[in-house]
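Exercise 7b. Backbone tokens:
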């Protein structure tokens, strides 16, 4: 498994604020959840989880419709 496969990004007002990479999707999803709870009140906050190996965005908050 690639050590930096799952990438979580927190952005505020369209600018990246924090990044993290994990080899485990389970751990990355936990970090995603934590970051939403800890940083979700930033102005125009957005958190995304991407599988860097496939280029697939796995989840985003807030959800886009």
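Sequence design result:
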């Amino acid at each position: 498994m690639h050590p930096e496969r799952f990438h979580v990004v927190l952005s505020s007002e369209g600018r990246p604020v924090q990044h993290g990479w994990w080899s485990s999707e389970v751990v990355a999803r936990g970090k995603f959840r934590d970051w939403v709870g800890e940083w979700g009140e930033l102005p125009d906050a957005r958190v995304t989880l991407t599988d860097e190996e496939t280029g697939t965005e796995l989840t985003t908050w807030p959800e886009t419709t």
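Instructor comment: The longest strand covers residues 15-22. The chain has a mean pLDDT of 93.
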